[in-house]
User: Fold AMP nucleosidase from Dyadobacter frigoris.
Amino acid sequence: MTTKEQIVENWLPRYTGTAVEDFGNYILLTNFGNYVTMFAEKFDVEVKGNGRAMQTATANDITIINFGMGSPMAATVMDLLSAINPKAVLFLGKCGGLKKTQVGDLILPIAAIRGEGTSDDYMPSEIPALPSFRLQSTVSASIAKHNLDYWTGTVYTTNRRIWEHDDSFKEYLRDIRAMAIDMETATIFIVGFANSIPHGALLLVSDNPMVPEGVKTEESDKKVTTNYVTTHLEIGIESLTELARSGESVKHLRFE
Assistant:
């Protein structure tokens, strides 16, 4: 294999246990196996890729992928997806709220700050990490149909998983006025841009790590899963279903 195209066409099935031709045109990305299980149960379809790095399920031209955690894996899945040139990729991630957010709130980011480093291998650091407007607009409309509100703003993406004890880092987060922090969004936006894949994100606030009592625990994470994950997933499915029905392109009218 001498070209990127040859590599990703071979590696996408290798990582997922799913043949290239079996992927839908619309992709949901997640870090959590239970999202894939819930999707599969909803549509009575098979979960593929058990024992592989990533698991998938496909129904109604939508494929959901659990790609794991962190920006390197986010970059990997967005590179692999160039094998199928999806019409839209929506990341359903969890994040830490940094401002007035409460657990269970939704954040629809308008940009991401590239603190993770991985995206620097794809684009110069001065290029902003932005979502596809058409996709975010559709997600916004889907949230409204559920009679829910959402926050908007920037999300800071980091490779650093354990930082809640670091007061100087928390002061930095206050200074840059980020709405949330996660480990994947900026990478998905930049690598999506590099691969000409329309992309967006809808983040679920799972903790408020700026204060000691808000740091995520196993018990608090179970409450998030019980109370909010179903709606998070439903909004993602409905957003991509609406795009598929409309038949409209998600790409910017002019894209370079």
Notes: The radius of gyration is 17 Å. The chain has one domain: 4-210+219-246.
